[in-house]
Write a structure and sequence with these properties.
- The chain is α+β, with helices and mostly antiparallel strands and 191 residues long.
- The protein has one domain (47-190): Protein Transport Mog1p, Chain A (3-Layer(aba) Sandwich).
- It is built from two helices and nine strands; from the N terminus they run ββαβββββββα.
- It has helices spanning 59-64, 169-190, and strands spanning 3-6, 14-16, 69-74, 84-90, 96-104, 123-127, 130-135, 144-151, 154-163.
- A seven-stranded antiparallel β-sheet has the order 3-4-5-9-8-7-6. A two-stranded antiparallel sheet has the order 1-2.
- A hairpin with a 7-residue loop joins strand 1 and strand 2.
- The longest helix has 22 residues, at 169-190.
């Protein structure tokens, strides 16, 4: 339902909902491994090992976001293959769109704040007091991603992608930040 452009070449973006997350967009340039900003410390570690991403939004939060369908899964290919995710759809009446929440246990947010990824420059933001990178793939202004640094070498990735027109990139990023704030709030109660 929520598919996007895709190219099966290593290093190029691959963005799909519900099953796939953003590609690492990795550069072959090994010299670009330092974040362009200083990343603030986390209030505390919130590891996501073994956590079901669908548990990160409560029934009340799901109702507030007007989500109509929740589907657990895993990324099936690419850099995040095997990563647990949860697709949450708003599809009973237009505008249709979906959220995806993924728990990444093998890299932190610094990868999104380091030159060399195939993204427009990421913006360092704060989500629930945790450092986060807000970004979108180059040329893809129809989705917004927020990677929250929840623990050393781990992140919580939240994506919003519409199906059809009707949203600006700013609106998508506001929606993504709201869902990420909710997920972090819930995660803090689970740890």
């Amino acid at each position: 339902m929520l598919a996007a452009c895709s190219e099966d070449v290593v290093g190029n973006p691959k963005m799909q909902l519900p099953d796939d997350g953003p590609s690492d967009g990795a550069s072959s340039d090994p010299s670009s491994s330092t974040p362009t900003v200083d990343i603030p410390a986390r209030p505390r570690e919130l590891p996501v090992d073994g956590l079901d991403p669908c548990s990160l939004l409560t029934d009340a939060q799901i109702a507030q976001l007007t989500i109509t369908k929740v589907s657990p899964g895993e990324v099936e290919e690419g850099h995040y293959k095997g990563t647990k995710n949860c697709t949450l759809r708003v599809d009973e009446m237009p505008p249709y769109y979906g959220y995806r929440v993924s728990t990444v246990t093998f890299e932190g947010i610094e990868v999104w704040l380091t030159p060399g990824r195939n993204i427009d420059p990421a913006k360092l933001i704060s989500v629930g007091g945790y450092p986060a990178a807000e970004f979108h793939l180059q040329g893809a202004d129809d989705e917004c991603n927020v990677a929250v640094g929840v623990a050393e070498g781990q992140l919580l990735l939240v994506t919003v992608r519409p199906l059809g027109d009707g949203f600006t990139l700013d609106q998508l990023c506001q929606m993504t930040e709201q869902a990420a704030e909710m997920a972090i709030s819930t995660l803090q109660t689970l740890k």
